[in-house]
Design goal:
By secondary structure, this protein is mostly helical. It has one domain (7-333). It has helices at 7-30, 37-64, 69-100, 105-136, 140-157, 169-177, 203-226, 232-243, 246-253, 263-284, 305-333; strands at 191-194, 197-200. It has a two-stranded antiparallel sheet with strand order 1-2. Helix 3 (69-100) packs across helix 10 (263-284), helix 4 (105-136) runs antiparallel to helix 8 (232-243) and helix 7 crosses helix 10. The longest helix has 32 residues, at 69-100. The radius of gyration is 21 Å and the shape is globular. The N and C termini lie far apart (59 Å). 37% of the residues are buried.
Length: 334
């Protein structure tokens, strides 16, 4: 690609980010505990600061390589904010799954970390496939855009478009073919013995549920970020940095799930906006013979990255402020 960042920077970035993730995983395995609100807030602050610094490094390295650093930096920040907001949506669904399976607090960190690793694997697969397909078939931008608009409408209409993990057909099938004991015990994590018979604990069902939800969210998030940047490096690093701190965000937002009333609506608007942007981009690249005789269509100018970033920031700000205002009204009415 013409706007590809230096190879040394990409390799170093991947190595550092993976090392941080592995360190986080090591902490979960070595020191299983329930993070306090202060600890969660400090970790989230660290990960957000890391993303901000990383965006600055992209600008500096790109400029030094003779690229448009400002544009690449804006693409990164817009992509990261979009993925981070979708990750917050992940957290709410994870909370539902944990509650439905009555997962003990001591197990939640480990399962969440495994869910994050699964999410990275699935997203990496979709990113590689998406980048290769979009490079060869520009008309796929039409499909991605239409799909995001559809998802946005569905999320506006339904509070929980993705459903719960326990309702997943694959999980129901697993219950039938595996010996899954319905109860959790303090001494068992994945396998347990009951009257001399081996059983799986419900942890296996939770992990499958998280994996299934990760696939659904990947189908939403990957087309969304490709609407902002087509650089596989930026797409993947945006996803890694958005998923970093998701475990801490889970514990921090646990008590706020019912208070962020309009966050889902804000995310839906962002998805709809990016869907429109993708369709508009597809029209500018148009090669389909049944649309304008295969000629480019420029009814609406291309939406610049800085405008996408402004729309994303304003939408999230309005959604959060409106949620806070509604919560205050409800508390004062009691």
């Amino acid at each position: 690609m013409d706007d590809a960042l230096p190879l040394w920077f990409e390799i170093t970035s991947y190595a550092v980010l993976v090392a941080i993730l592995l360190f986080d995983l090591f902490l979960v395995v070595r020191r299983p505990h329930i993070p306090s609100t202060r600890e969660s807030a400090l970790w989230i602050t660290f990960y957000v600061s890391l993303a901000i610094v990383f965006g600055i490094l992209i600008i500096l390295v790109a400029n030094d390589a003779g690229l448009n650093g400002t544009e690449l930096g804006l693409q990164f920040y817009a992509g990261w904010l979009t993925e981070y907001s979708l990750s917050a949506d992940n957290v709410f669904v994870f909370l539902i799954i944990m509650a439905q399976f009555r997962v003990p607090k001591r197990m939640q960190q480990e399962l969440l970390m495994m869910g994050i690793v699964l999410a990275l694997i699935f997203r990496a697969i979709f990113i590689v496939l998406g980048a290769a397909l979009l490079e060869s078939y520009s008309w796929l931008f039409y499909i991605f855009g239409a799909y995001l608009v559809f998802v946005a409408i569905q999320q506006m209409r339904e509070k929980d478009e993705h459903g719960s993990g326990e309702d997943n057909f694959f999980v129901a099938w697993l219950k039938k073919v595996l010996n899954v004991h319905p109860e959790w015990r303090d001494t068992e994590r994945w396998r347990k013995m009951v009257n001399g018979e081996k059983f799986f604990t419900p942890a296996i069902l939770v992990l499958v549920s998280l994996g299934a939800i990760d696939v659904v969210f990947a189908l939403d998030s990957i087309p969304a970020i490709f609407g902002i940047t087509t650089s596989p490096f930026l797409v993947f690093t945006c996803n890694i940095l958005a998923l970093m701190g998701l475990r801490q965000l889970y514990f921090l937002l646990g008590d706020l799930v019912d208070r962020l009333h309009y966050l889902g609506h804000g995310i839906a608007f962002i998805l709809g906006f990016i869907g429109f942007k993708l369709v508009n981009h597809a029209l500018h690249l148009n090669e389909l013979p049944f649309i304008n005789n295969g000629q480019h269509v420029e009814i609406v100018p291309e939406i610049p990255t800085w405008l996408s970033l402004v729309v994303i920031v304003l939408t999230l700000t309005v959604a959060v402020l409106a949620s806070i205002a509604r919560t205050k009204r409800e508390l004062s009415a009691k």
